[in-house]
Write the structure tokens for this entry.
Amino acid sequence: MDRLLGGTFTNVSFVDARRLIGALGFEELRVKGSHHVYGRAGIAEQLNLQDRSGQAKPYQLRQLVALIRQYDLRIEDDR
């Protein structure tokens, strides 16, 4: 997450992006083709994430960071 918050949006693995989204409390709502759509209670916006050759699309990661900052999201602890 530190890389993303620091402004590095390239070379982020799609799998790592999905893990981060899950750790932030988002749930996968649906998958249609290459589009994975996520939502979280209390957040009106939904996130769309696509796999492009194993990498997450940079503009979608920018949208994720905007939501992290807007809602002051933190990684959830499973304890």
In short: The chain has one domain: 2-71. The chain is about 35% helix and 30% strand. The first strand starts at residue 27 and ends at 32. Strands lie at 27-32, 35-40, 43-52, 55-56.
